[in-house]
């Protein structure tokens, strides 16, 4: 009797749990599904009631239109250059800094380490005006290098923060052996540390790339022309041929195009990304 | 060993290591001085001037504390502070509760757990601008899927103008933020959950503790550090909110955030002086928040 009651309860609990997981999955994934569906509808299908939950006849034309009605290819290239340049610079410069902070003991190390953390918490709006003046006076307004320089504000401290935690986990014997063999610090860093720290570089690099790829405020403020526009700004400023309704199918097509590479990256490297995110948060 | 016998050599080795360290740090420090320290200094400096962003080189007139006096009695500024605080309070609160529930679900063993964990990364990975546009479309009053879904589920009777009705815009924005950032919260809490030794639960079970008791007596106290860190990071993020509100609701006064107000003054209206005072105000508010948090954290650690 009791046993039977238990299994009924167990069954109910299990069904409830499966239902909960189903709702959760729907909640997490539906908006992106909806973006894909909308990107495959014609304007007539888009602005029709009742709403259809599958694209009746997939309209791939939307994916062509975004490249022909505006220089979307150019925006993608710009985003790629900005995010790639920011990432490479952050990793290269940050590696040296992380090595210094993680391995050398010197006066001022603690304050520098915590200043880096403070900079990552910093509201970027509070430097917007000053950066605008700086970018203007350096002649970098409305240019890719200008965006890369300003993006270092948030990617560099974060990269140093993550790489330092990786440097600290590497046994010191490895480098000592190199120093005994007469290696210089730069050689020790590149020949001994770099191969061991490579996973950390991948994690930090991915997070920096994603941050730079998604950045909106600086890109909106420090660029004006299509020549230097990045994808987030382009998607935000999307306007249609008619002022009456926005071309949501094209906006969604553009959205899918910029999101898919990111999702692929995240899915491939999900372990590393989660480790990096939680390490940054938990150790902080 | 060798160093102890020869103090002079040890000193020089130390000096050499210090010099190398600073040399390695130099590029990072130069860049951060250039893009963080200098602009921040400029923000504070310019907040004492009347200066337009449109003319280069800048022509600035010293006005003392005038900008701050104006800021203090600027109803739009205080409205933006209030909006931001309300937005932060509700979205972080909801994210914490929902994030904890999701973390607990994903922490338990079940088939398809990997799938859910992967799916959790999707809202996080989608660029903020993209998810803002996605939700803007989904919340469209006539053709939006949210109205359709909610009506099918009998949650609402008639379509709602989520983004036009003043009373609904802020709740809608909070709803979007919760969708976008709850997974991050859940990931941090999940890492915290995984750090709790399983033996504790086994021991509690042996002692006859119910799952509810286990949750309040073991899970919650041990999760506290992760919860605190997640809360702090999310609160900081929410207080800085710009992208999502700017794209979904624009600069309307009902939902304008501190960051949007500062950018509007600085760039759209071109008043670099007053805008800098707004930016300095935001900096001070966040600095206050961070120091309160650091003090609490120190107390917590002790």
Keywords:
heterodimer; A: 284 residues; mainly alpha; 76% helix; B: 302 residues; 2 strands; 2% strand
Q: What would a concise description of this structure say?
A:
Chain A is mainly α and 284 residues long. Chain A contains 13 helices and no strands. Chain B has 302 residues and is an all-alpha fold.
Rg of chain B is 25 Å
Enumerate how many helices of chain A there are, as a single number: 13
Main sheet of chain A, how many strands, which sense, barrel? Answer: none
Distance between the termini of chain B: 38 Å
Number of strands of chain B: 2
Q: Summarize the helix and strand pattern of chain B as letters.
A: HHEEHHHHHHHHHHH
Residue runs with pLDDT of under 50 for 5 or more positions of chain A:
none
The outline of chain A comes out as globular
| Strand line-up of the largest beta sheet of chain B | 1-2
Largest interface: A-B, 90 and 93 residues
Helices and strands of chain A, in N-to-C order? HHHHHHHHHHHHH
The structure class of chain A reads mainly alpha
End-to-end distance of chain A: 53 Å
What is the assembly state of the chains in this entry?
Answer: heterodimer
Classify the helix fraction of chain B into a percent range.
Answer: over 70%
Textual characterization of the structure:
The complex is a heterodimer of chains A (284) and B (302). Chain A has helices at 2-39, 43-46, 61-68, 72-103, 109-121, 128-137, 144-169, 173-180, 185-214, 217-222, 231-236, 248-268, 270-283. Chain A contains 13 helices and no strands. With 284 residues, chain A is mostly helical. The longest helix of chain A has 38 residues, at 2-39. In chain A, helix 3 (61-68) packs across helix 12, helix 4 packs parallel to helix 7 and helix 7 crosses helix 9 (185-214). Chain B has 302 residues and is mostly helical. In chain B, 76% of the residues lie in helices and 2% in strands. Chain B is built from 13 helices and two strands; from the N terminus they run H-H-E-E-H-H-H-H-H-H-H-H-H-H-H. Chain B has helices at residues 2-5, 7-46, 66-72, 75-107, 113-125, 128-138, 145-152, 166-194, 198-206, 211-239, 243-249, 258-268, 272-301; strands at 49-51, 60-62. Chain B has a two-stranded antiparallel sheet. The model of chain B is unreliable at 1-5 (pLDDT under 50). Classes of the chains: A mainly alpha (284), B mainly alpha (302).
């Amino acid at each position: 009797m009791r046993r039977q009651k238990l299994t009924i309860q167990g069954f109910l609990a299990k069904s409830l749990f499966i239902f909960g997981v189903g709702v959760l999955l729907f909640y997490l994934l539906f908006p992106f599904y909806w973006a894909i569906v909308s990107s495959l509808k014609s304007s007539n299908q888009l602005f029709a009631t009742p709403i259809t939950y599958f694209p009746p006849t997939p309209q791939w034309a939307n994916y062509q239109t975004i490249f022909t009605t505006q220089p979307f290819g150019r925006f993608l290239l710009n985003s790629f250059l900005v995010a790639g340049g920011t990432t490479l610079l952050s990793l290269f410069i940050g590696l040296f800094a992380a090595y210094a902070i993680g391995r050398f003991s010197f006066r001022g190390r603690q304050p520098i380490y915590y200043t880096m953390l403070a900079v990552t918490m910093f509201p970027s709006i509070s430097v917007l005006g000053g950066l605008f003046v700086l970018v203007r006076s350096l002649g970098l307004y409305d240019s890719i290098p200008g965006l890369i320089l300003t993006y270092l504000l948030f990617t560099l401290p974060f990269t140093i923060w993550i790489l330092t935690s990786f440097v600290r986990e590497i046994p010191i014997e490895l480098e000592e052996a190199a120093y005994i063999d007469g290696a210089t610090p730069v050689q020790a860093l590149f020949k001994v540390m770099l191969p061991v720290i490579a996973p950390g570089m991948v994690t930090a690099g991915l997070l920096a790339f994603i941050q730079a790829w998604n950045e909106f405020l600086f890109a909106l403020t420090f660029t004006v022309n299509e020549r230097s526009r990045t994808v987030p700004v382009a998607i935000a400023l999307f306007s249609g041929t008619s002022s009456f309704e926005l071309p949501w199918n094209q906006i969604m097509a553009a959205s899918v195009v910029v999101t898919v590479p990111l999702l692929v990256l995240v899915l491939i490297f999900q372990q590393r990304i989660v480790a990096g995110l939680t390490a940054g948060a938990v150790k902080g | 060993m060798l160093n102890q016998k020869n103090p002079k050599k040890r000193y020089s080795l130390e000096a050499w290591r210090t010099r190398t360290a600073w040399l390695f740090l130099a590029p990072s420090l130069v860049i951060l001085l250039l893009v963080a320290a200098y602009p921040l200094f400029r923000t504070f400096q310019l907040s004492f001037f009347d200066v337009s962003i449109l003319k280069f080189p800048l022509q600035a007139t010293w006005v003392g504390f005038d900008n701050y006096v104006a800021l203090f009695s600027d109803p739009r500024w205080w409205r933006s502070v209030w909006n931001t605080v309300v937005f932060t309070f509700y979205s972080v609160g909801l994210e914490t509760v929902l994030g904890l529930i999701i973390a607990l679900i994903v922490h338990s063993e079940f088939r398809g757990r990997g799938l859910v964990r992967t799916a959790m990364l999707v809202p996080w990975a989608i660029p903020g601008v993209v998810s803002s546009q996605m939700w803007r479309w989904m919340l469209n009053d006539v053709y939006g899927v949210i109205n359709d879904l909610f009506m099918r589920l009998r949650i609402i009777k008639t379509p709602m103008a989520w983004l036009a009705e003043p009373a609904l815009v802020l709740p809608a924005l909070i709803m979007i933020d919760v969708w976008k950032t709850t997974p991050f919260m859940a990931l941090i809490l999940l890492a915290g959950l995984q750090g709790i030794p399983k033996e504790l639960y086994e021991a509690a079970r042996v002692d006859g503790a119910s799952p509810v008791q286990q949750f309040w007596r073991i899970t919650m106290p041990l999760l506290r550090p992760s919860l605190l860190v997640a809360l702090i990071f999310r609160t900081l993020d929410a207080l800085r909110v710009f992208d999502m509100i700017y794209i979904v609701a624009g600069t309307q006064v009902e939902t304008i955030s501190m960051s949007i107000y500062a950018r509007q003054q600085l760039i759209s209206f071109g008043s670099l002086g007053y805008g800098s005072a707004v930016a300095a105000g935001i900096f001070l508010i966040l600095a206050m928040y961070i120091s309160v948090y650091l003090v609490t954290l120190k107390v917590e650690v002790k």
